[in-house]
Amino acid sequence: MKFEPPKENVNEAKEIILNVFSSLEEKGYDPINQVIGYILSGDPTYITSYNNARSMIRKIERDELLEELLKSYLKYEK
């Protein structure tokens, strides 16, 4: 089975990730650890509600979130 997210959601996912990371940093959290906790557990309380970050991150599926992070990582490793 091949997974392909809709193309319009890719830019939205990237914007959401950047906004959530920014909100987590502003509140003094380590965004990497918090997002990893969210991805692994599915528990939205890993993400702060500050700046509506928790609601934003729940708009995208965790697999989409993981895909966007992996694509970004691989793009910069080449």
TrEMBL record:
It comes from the Bacteria. Pfam families: IreB. Belongs to the UPF0297 family. This is IreB family regulatory phosphoprotein.
